[in-house]
Amino acid sequence: MRAVLFTSLVIVAAASGAVDERADLRALQEATTTATTTPHPLRDMYENMMQWWCSKPDNGESVVCKRRQLVGLLRSSPEKKSETLDALKKLGAPPSGAVRAVQDEYCRVPENASTSVCKNHGLAEEGKKMAEWFCSQEGKEATLYCQRSKLMLKMRTIPPVKKRMKKRMQF
Q: Would you say residue 137 has pLDDT above 50?
């Protein structure tokens, strides 16, 4: 995303005649770098949740924690990018329910219930209950909404297939 933003700024600046020297390009690049490293509350809350989960003794070696470590390494050590990306590819995607299980446990703690991560999680759970209620009514199970809900529920329980993930993650 940073590259796209930087490229867009360069194109706009070049069109306006503002890019005459390398110093202008460096200033633009610095501006985009600081803009993309600003804090994002939801991302920070998600990171707090993952830190909480991964600090527990039994969870440190889970797929979601290993993935978190690698993504953190990718952000902090750009010089090791190719090695880290290879490790991420080997690790593969975590099972789709793994992060949801982390959220379930994290949001059960009363002081976490008011965070955006838990509010979003709660809305998703309410949506599931609403779909269950609606689709359980007579004649409603054939609607597209209920068919989609049933399919999405089935898809969330399927673990990722390693072969397919490897193909998709190749660059």
A: yes
